[in-house]
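Morning. Coffee machine broken again, so started the prediction first thing and wrote up yesterday's gels while waiting. Chain of 276 residues, entered below exactly as on the submission form.
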Amino acid sequence: MDSQVLVALALSLVGGLSTSIGALFVVLNRAPNLKMLGLLQGFAAGLMLSISFFDLAHNALNSIGFLKGNIWFFAGVVFFAIVVNFIPEPTLGPSSDAKDKKKSEDEGGKDMMKKHRRQVLFSGIITAVGISLHNFPEGMAVFLGSIKGLRVGLNLALAIALHNIPEGVAVALPVYFATQSKWQAFKLATLSGLAEPLGVILVAYIFPTSLHPEILEGLLGSVGGVMAFLTLHEMLPLAFDYAGQKQAVKAVFLGMAFMSASLYFLEISLPKEMSL
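Came back before lunch.
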């Protein structure tokens, strides 16, 4: 393997495995109550929306034009709107709430907690998939930065590492709550970060010869559409259910502001001719 690729892989591992640091913050503490979980789900939804609109979709619009960028973005939305109909997922509708009230308190409480846990686990898996897809271009950026020089690659890897810590929290928290397994929470958060070195391998050995840059940007725009749909369809209703609408909305905007600031500092660490 080329030494340049090895350096890029090592640097991307620094950034990617920082999701494990975020996971450690979660697993070293007790599982949160439902209200705190709702607030943190709102914060995670803000992270995902910011990545979707201000990073992936924004880059697609700038790279391939307004019309093509929007077509790719909404193709992702429509695609997953269709797919989600085939995904079995637990819901907490008013009718089921009414039925639960008619049962004994013990049975009703157990049923509701099982639904809570299944729904939260589903949300955690969505977050892990979304963040993994987001980490691919970050790995590519680390590879391109390391080609320009070790200092550029190292600065970028450290910026991404700081940027990825809250993403690790966003993945590990719902998994820990749903499964009560610290290992499962830590494992899933770590795996989502490993998409970054995978991005290095893909850009080094596959994309230069087989994928046109315009198609790559379009696909990333579609990923943004998928993430936006899943965030609004799954994570935001969950945050509303657990934390209340007003508090959840505040958490969403806090998450968006945090990720936007993180993306900004990540952007200024790149050379002018590069962008994520």
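The radius of gyration is 19 Å. Going to sketch it on the whiteboard this afternoon.
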